[in-house]
C-alpha cells in the first residue's frame, strides 16, 4: 500500500538543485558581499560599496526565494504522500497483527544468522508469559520444546531449509511458563538472501490444546468403542456358546416373549413336537395345547410366571404337529431385568415313558402287596385256627411248631409291610393325613402291644407325659409307626431288667419325643450308618437275628417328610437316646396313593 | 344269660384259601356264614336271604365290580342300610379306604395284619351293641 502510494507521487523535479544550489548561492553571495565590503572601499568605486553589497544580497535572496517558491510546495506534497504511505503501511501491519491475534495465532521470526528471534505478544501470552513482544535468542524457543519432540522439530526445520520438504509445518509441545506443556502447530516460511541462503524464518504458532483435547477425547472414545466392540465380540462368542449348548440340549427348549410369542426353539423342541422352526417362530405355545390337559393347569401357570416365579408341572398333555400326544414335564423360567420380564424360557420333556415306568412301579408295589399278603394271611389264619382249639387240641410239640409257623409268618408280614413302606417312600406316593390325635394314647397303645416282651424281660418303662400336648394334628398311622419302631427297638435291644424311658413334651415350637434306654447301644463307628436302609448294628446282629434294618430308615423318612428332625446319641453297652422333633403346628398334609402300614 | 341268636354273615372273598378259613372261623365261632366271590352274587344273596346281619367284604373280587361298587349298591337300598360292613382287604389304597369310610363301613382291616379272631371279635362286639 505504502509503495503504491509512493509510486503515484513522482519525486519533485529540481529538488536536488534547490538543496544543492541554495546553500551554494547563499555562500557565494555572502562571500561576494564580504569581498566587496573589504575590497571595494579601497578602489575608486568606494562610494558604490553599499549599493553593490545590497545588490548581491538581493540577488541571492531573489534566487533562493525563487527556488523555494517553486520547489517547496512540491516537496510538501511529496512529504504528505510519504506520510500517507507510512500510515497505510502501519495500518496494514496492524491489520495483519489483528488478524493473527484474532485467529489466535502467535507470530515469530528467527534471524538464522544472528540467532536472534522475535516472538509476538500473542505467542508469549499463549505460553503464559507477559503479553508483550519479545526479542530473545532462538534457544529460548528451542529449549521450550518437549524433549520428546525437540529432535523431530529440529529435523523438520532442517529438511525444510535444505529444500527437502516443501514446507515447514509441525505439531509439537511447548513448555509454558508454568511448566505445563502446550500442543501447538507451527508453520513457517523462509526468506532467502540474494545469494539464496536462508536469512530469516518466520511463522505462526497455533494453540492446539482444544484440538488436542478433542483428539484425545476422540481417541478415548475410539478406544472405548474398540473395547466395547471386543466386549461385544466376546459376548457374541459367549452367546454362541450358550446357543450351541441350548441347541444341542436333548431337552426341548423354547423361548417366548412376555406375550407368549415364540422367538426361539431348539432342535430337540423341533424333534419332540414335529413343528419346524419356521412353523414355531412367531406363534404361541398354545399350538401344543391338548384338550386332555386339566383346565386349571394354565391359570396356575400364568399366576406363577407372571409373578416372576419358576413354574414346574408334570401334568401337561401336549399335542404334536401330527396330532399325537405326549405327557410333558414342563418348566418355565421367567427371565427378568429389574421389574421387567424380558422373556420366558421353557424346558419341556416327554415323560410318557417315565410316567409309564412310575405307574408300572406303583402297580408292582400294589401287586406285590396283594400277592405276598394273601398267602401270608392264609398262613396266619390257618395257624391261628390250629392254635384256637376249635378243631381239637394239639399236643405240646404240635402247638410249639404251629406257634413257630405263626411267629415266622408275623415276621414275614412285618418285612413285607416294611418293604412296601420303603417303596412308597421312595416312589413318593405315601400320604400324610393329619387329624387331631392324642399322642399319649398312641404311645400307650404301642407300649401295651409290647407289654408281653417287656414283662418277659422284666424291663422298667418310665413314662414322662406331664408336658405332652393334649391334642396334636398328626397322622395316627405314621405316629404309631414312629413310636412302634423306637419303643420296640428299645425293648428288643435292652437287656433284661433294663430301663426304657419315653417322654412326650414340647421344645420351643416343636413337638419333642424322647425315647431312651440303657441297653446295648450302637457302636460309635456305625453311628453314621444308623438311618441307612437295611442297616443293623454289628453288636445287635449277633444277639438277635430278627429285624429288617428298615425301621429307622422309614422313621427318618416320615419325620423329615413331616418337616421334623431326628437325632440320637448312643454308646455301646450304655444305651441309646433318640430325639424326635416334629412341627408343633402338626404334620403337613400330603396327598398320596397310600398310607404307610 | 340270653340265648345267643345265630348271626348270619355274608362273606365276599374271592381267594378260595382265605374264603375257606374265614367261613370255618365264623362257623367255629357260632356264626352262619354265606360265602360268595363276586359283588353280583353278594347282591343276590342279600336279596334272597331274609336276614343277613353283617357283611365281610374284600376289596378285590372276581368279576368287574369291586367291593366299593358293592357298598355303593348296598347303600342305595334302604333295607340294607343298617347292615354293618367290615372291609377286610390286603390291597385297598388310601383313597379307597377313605371312600369306604365315607360310605359308612364299620371298619377297615388289612388281612395280613390281623388274626381272624380279632376281626370276628370286633364284628361280634358291633352286633351285640346293635342289639342292645
Automatic annotation (TrEMBL), chain A:
Pfam families documented for this protein: HATPase_c, HisKA, PAS_3, PAS_9
EC number: 2.7.13.3
PAC domain mapped to chain residues: 168-220
Reaction equations catalysed: ATP + protein L-histidine = ADP + protein N-phospho-L-histidine
Keyword Amino-acid biosynthesis tagged: no
SUPFAM superfamilies registered for this protein in UniProt: ATPase domain of HSP90 chaperone/DNA topoisomerase II/histidine kinase, Homodimeric domain of signal transducing histidine kinase, PYP-like sensor domain (PAS domain)
PANTHER family: PAC DOMAIN-CONTAINING PROTEIN, PHYTOCHROME-LIKE PROTEIN CPH1
Species the sequence originates in: Candidatus Lloydbacteria bacterium RIFCSPHIGHO2_02_FULL_54_17
Transmembrane segments: 56-76
UniProt KW keywords: Coiled coil, Kinase, Membrane, Phosphoprotein, Transferase, Transmembrane, Transmembrane helix
Protein name as catalogued: histidine kinase
Source species, domain of life: Bacteria
Coiled-coil residue windows: 211-245
Segments forming domain PAS: 92-164, 238-284
Taxonomic path: Bacteria, Candidatus Lloydiibacteriota
Enzyme class: transferase
Example of a GO MF term: phosphorelay sensor kinase activity
Histidine kinase domain mapped to chain residues: 367-586
Automatic annotation (TrEMBL), chain B:
4-aspartylphosphate, modified sites: 58
Stored InterPro entries: Bact_response_regulator, CheY-like_superfamily, Sig_transdc_resp-reg_receiver
Entry-linked SMART domains: REC
KW Phosphoprotein (keyword) present: yes
Pfam families: Response_reg
GO BP terms in the entry: phosphorelay signal transduction system
Residue span(s) of domain Response regulatory: 8-126
Record's keyword terms, sorted: Phosphoprotein
SUPFAM superfamilies: CheY-like
Key word Repeat present: no
Protein name: Response regulatory domain-containing protein
